[in-house]
Structure formats: C-alpha cells, structure tokens
Design a protein that fits this description.
Elements: E1 2-3, H1 14-20, H2 36-56, E2 63-66, H3 69-82, E3 88-91, H4 97-110, E4 113-116, H5 127-133, E5 138-144, H6 156-165, E6 170-173, E7 190-194, E8 205-209, H7 235-273, E9 277-279, E10 290-295, H8 300-309, E11 312-313, H9 329-333, H10 338-341, E12 344-348, H11 356-374
Parallel strand pairs: 1-11, 3-4, 3-5, 5-6, 6-7
Antiparallel strand pairs: 2-8, 7-8, 9-10, 10-12
Length: about 375
C-alpha cells in the first residue's frame, strides 16, 4: 500500500512514541498536584511548552496545549473576538471548517459581522484585499498559512504588515505548514498547530497567543493553562507534540527540498499522462508535498476507489469534510465550477520522498485509474 494522505494524518514517529512513553507509565501525576509525583509531570509539561514556543517563535507563556488544530482554531477565533469589545471578523472562504464554523457561530450567537476575503484562482489572498476588509471595529483577521486541500501558501509577512499597521490581531492556522515551512518569523499574534500532521498522536495540538492579546477561555473549570483552557493537561501529548515539532523543524530544509522535487516529478507525470488533469492551487507557492488535481468529467470518488484497488490511498480533500456530497468549498471559492470541483483528488506526501521511478509509477497508476473510470 502507498499512503499519500499525510495532510489528513501521519503515523506516529518512533522517537515521539519513546519520548512520551514515560508520561504514560511512571511519570503519571497530575501536573496541578502539589507533591513530587505531580511536580515531575508539571516539570515535563513546562519543558514541552518551552520547546513548542521555540519552534513557533513565541514565549513559553504564550503556549496553550489543546486537543488538536480544531480546538486551537476555535479558541483563537472565538476567544480573541469575545475577548475584544470589537465585533467584526475577517476570514477567507478557503479556510478550514474549524475557522469558518467558529466565525459562523460568532455571527449567529454574538452578532459579529464576518467579512469574507476574495481569493484568486490559485487560492491566494492579497494584502490589498485584507486592507480593504479592515474596519475600525475589526477584532481579528484569521487565515491559514497553507491551505489543507490545494496547498497554496500565503505571504503571511505581507498580510501581517497590513494587520499590524491597523493594530488588528492576526491568527494564522499553521496546522498544514508546520514541519514544512519556517514558523519562527511568522510574527502572527496567534498560531495554531496539530501534532498528528507531524508524527505525534491524534488529539495533540497547541495555540500560541501573544500575551498582549485578550483571550476569552472556552473551557472553564480548574483554571489550567493560566486560566485560558481548563482541564487536566495531557502531559504525554504535550511532550509528543514538542518532540514532533522539534524533529520536523530540524529536518525541514532537507526534507522539504527532497519532497518538493519528488512531488514535482509526480505532478509533471500526471499532467503529461492524463489529458483532462488540472493542478489546483498556486503552481509555485505551495506546500512541498501537496498535489491536488481535478479530472474534468470524471468522478473524483470513483478515481479514489480505482486507486485503492491499485494499492494507492489518497483523498478527495479535507478529511474533516469526508462523506459530504457537496463540492469542496475551497475549490468553489477559487472559482472552479461545482461539476469540476467534484472531480478533485488530493495526494499529500510525508517526509519520505518518492524515488524518481516511484513518482513515475504513481503517475501511471493515476492515469490508469482515471482511464478506468472514464470507460465506465
């Protein structure tokens, strides 16, 4: 089996499993307990916080451990807006559901006005579009660093310059870009990451929010995480996330270069052998391991089934929207017609680059699958 759905999740790395093992066995204490067993767990938790902060370019006190990227985005969008007296939110229509549905919640239950940004055919957001959307009552701009379906990478520095000049906080969803792109210099006011994209277990993640940004907690109780996220902390999960982030960041330059070259060979192979194939997203400013196509006139779901029969596991887009009969909201926002959007198939690679021969073989299997579906 060839697994090419790493944007959905990646296997746990052996180094991560070993790093977290002591906190599932011997060092089992509650980090809020004031005795030696609890203090050992608290020490590990704070060490993990420092390590995550280093990779994100934030302070340890800024880091809040969460159950994953969805909770981190919910806490950022809802928490920052509800912590502000302002009632205007700016998002783009290609964001992950955790941002879009948080925005809709604020609109429906808290009277927040939500302004969607225009994106171009490649899913790019311009600084001018952000500047035009800002108002005196804007509480937050929330955007993804890299899109989870088409892989387009945003110019966060240019967008941050606009929001900083207007003194509006910027939240960046870095769930897909962590491990592929540098995060230290993003300069955002809030950054979300998820462990299971990096080789940590599912259910691990973090939100880093700069101390100057007011944040209303969504979970109340024991006041953990400096009162911003109550609940007994997942110490093993925090250690796992810190370990996975550090490993991915240390390997990033070499891995990204090799995987980008391998993915490019695969993309070229598909575009050459499948006449109806079209690459979605920005052809240059994209994640190294993401290749998403539409195959006009062919069912994307049927192509996926044909690929799996050939030992290739991929997806039609976000795992969070799997099972929906609706075309991708990302592709629709990019101006792709609904009937074409429903033909999409996404291939996302992990940190192991395909050899040149394997990239060609995978492209050939895609061509076979599309041809099989075309014949009915």
């Amino acid at each position: 089996m060839l697994y090419v759905d790493h944007a959905a999740t990646s296997p746990v790395r052996p180094e991560v499993l070993e790093a977290m093992r002591p906190y599932l066995t011997d060092v089992f204490g509650n980090p809020s307990s004031h005795h030696t067993v609890g203090e050992a767990a608290a020490s590990a938790l704070e060490d993990a916080r420092r390590r995550v902060a280093r990779v994100l370019g934030m302070r340890p006190a800024d880091v809040i451990f969460t159950s994953g990227g969805t909770e981190a985005n919910n806490l950022a969008v809802k928490g920052i807006v509800l912590g502000s007296a302002r009632r205007h939110l700016v998002v783009s229509p290609i964001e992950h559901e955790s941002i879009l549905e948080s925005a809709d919640f604020l609109r429906r239950f808290h009277g927040v006005t939500v302004t969607p940004l225009d994106v171009d055919f490649a899913g790019r957001i311009t600084a001018d579009a952000v500047a035009a959307a800002l108002r005196p009552d804007t509480a937050l701009v929330a955007l993804g660093h890299a899109n989870n379906e088409i892989g387009t990478v945003q110019d966060v520095a240019a967008l941050r310059a606009v929001t900083s000049a207007a003194r509006v906080p910027l939240h960046v969803d870095a769930v897909q870009s962590a491990g592929w792109l540098p995060l230290t210099d993003l300069g955002a006011d809030a950054i979300a990451v998820a462990g299971h994209k990096l080789g940590a277990p599912k259910g691990t993640g973090a939100l880093a929010v700069r101390g100057r940004v007011p944040l209303e907690p969504l979970l109340h109780g024991g006041g953990q995480e400096r009162g911003r996220r109550s609940g007994t902390e997942n110490v093993a999960g925090a250690v796992a996330l810190a370990t996975a982030l550090e490993l991915a960041d240390a390997e990033r330059a070499d891995v990204a270069s090799r995987v980008a070259a391998s993915t490019r060979r695969f993309i070229d192979g598909v575009l050459t052998t499948v006449p109806r194939a079209a690459l979605t997203g920005d052809p240059q400013h994209r994640l190294p391991g993401t290749a998403s196509f539409t195959f006009a006139g062919v069912s994307g779901e049927a192509v996926l089934l044909e690929l799996e029969r050939r030992g290739v596991v991929s997806s039609s887009g976000s795992a969070c929207a799997a099972g929906s009969d609706e075309p991708s909201h990302v592709l629709l926002a990019c101006g792709i017609p609904p009937e074409v959007a429903q033909t999409s198939v996404r291939f996302t690679f992990g940190r192991t680059a395909l050899p040149e021969s394997a990239a060609g073989q995978l492209a050939a299997l895609v061509a076979e699958a599309v041809h099989a579906v075309s014949r009915g």
